[in-house]
Design a protein that fits this description.
Blueprint lengths: L11 H19 L6 H23 L6 H4 L3 H12 L11 H29 L5
Helix pairs in contact: 1-2, 2-5
Length: 129
């Protein structure tokens, strides 16, 4: 008996990105005080990961590219309505709702790390800003 065929969607860089991001984010979130070296370096790691993922969104593998999961707002809303009714179409890669979530998450992480760097620079007179 042969098992089901496996289809790999996410490339190794995207898989590693996800788990290192989880570790970096929760390290920065849980470490106190906020000017401690562990918090600061975790923030740098998260920022570097977000910038790498943005770059990879343009030059990476097929399903990692933004063009594979950038949908119009109307397509996202239509998908979300269908998902609530349990009749949403399945996608290999990100669905319109998942694609929108990726963009929001990357923007939120970018804003969090940049404002963290700005605060660190203003309060501690340290860091690149």
């Amino acid at each position: 008996m042969v098992g089901p065929e496996r289809t790999f969607v996410w490339d190794p860089l995207v898989r590693a990105f996800h788990w290192v991001l989880v570790v970096g984010f929760f390290t920065a979130y849980l470490v106190e005080p906020e000017d401690s070296p562990a918090h600061v370096w975790a923030g740098y790691v998260v920022l570097a990961l977000v910038l790498l993922r943005i770059l990879w969104g343009f030059v990476g593998s097929r399903h990692a590219r933004f063009s594979d999961f950038a949908y119009s707002p109307s397509a996202v809303l239509s998908y979300l309505k269908d998902a609530v009714r349990f009749r949403a179409r399945r996608y290999l890669g990100h669905s319109p709702g998942g694609g929108a979530m990726v963009f929001v998450l990357l923007l939120a992480l970018l804003a969090t790390t940049v404002t963290g760097l700005m605060t660190y620079g203003a309060d501690q007179h340290a860091g690149p800003l």
